[in-house]
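Hi R.,

Here's the chain you asked about this morning:
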Amino acid sequence: MIPGMATRRHFSDLSEQEILALAISSEEDDARIYRTYADKLRGDFAASAEIFDAMAKEEDTHRHWLIERHRARFGDVIPLIRREHVAGFYTRRPIWLVENLGLDRMRAEAEAMEHDAEAFYRRAAATTTDADTRKLLGDLAAAEARHGHRAGALNEQHLDDEAKGEEDRAAHRQFLLTWVQPGLAGLMDGSVSTLAPIFATAFATHDPKTTLLVGLAASVGAGISMGFTEAAHDDGVLSGRGSPVKRGLASGVMTTLGGLGHALPYLISDFWTATTIAMIVVFIELWAIVWIQNRFMETPFLRATFQVVLGGALVFAAGILIGGG
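And here is the predicted structure, written out as tokens:
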């Protein structure tokens, strides 16, 4: 049994007062979420911030209607019941997760939130016997159905083609600066800088196990170093490159993966089989980096090839010469 499930109520067991209380708390939470989105976006995406401000105001209006209905039927004391108290009830993703995934993810989440609310109100309306309450819940269901496309409607109100294009370009640029650029730098460093120690060890010892240990140490060590360096050298405030934690994470993880790519083949006990596979992986890694540079960073293909493939080949050759000597 999932922890906490035994203490949750089933929707079918809720009284009409509890259903109204649940609706009130849900509208309150959704308004808070939309305002958080707006605050997060206000600096870089003012037009989209207006969209979420408007959606938050609408949720406040719904909450006000629900409170008035509760007061008319049950008085001023509203029971404390929230989504997490009801088994099988829809939940919201952690706001810190969604707000860190960018503008498009927030827009998509807002649309999903409205669809969830519509389904709730339709189900709630079907359970109540009071005519006025049933009418209110039905009206809210219809409103949420319209709001399922509210992001699009508000986009038309607040975002003309030029404004939306500017915001989309800004979001894409932020994605490149925060994730792609440090991740690519890490991948390049991890792939290239670990070539010499890994292949020098391989050809010096002809021992896959020793080579694997050196490769793991070099990859993880480089990843930690690159991650901390990226996070520490620029807080992102003046450069606009975004959160140093995100950049450090992207750089550190990709650095580690870049080295592990040609270290893990040495899990194979046969030296020449492992080395052949590792060389193939190196070839794929270097050309993948060229493609990423050309695709996302708009680096000319020949320049990227010269920088990455030639540089990697020289480091690779150095490792073999040192190890073989």
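One quick note: Residues 1-5 have pLDDT under 50 and may be disordered.

Cheers,
M.
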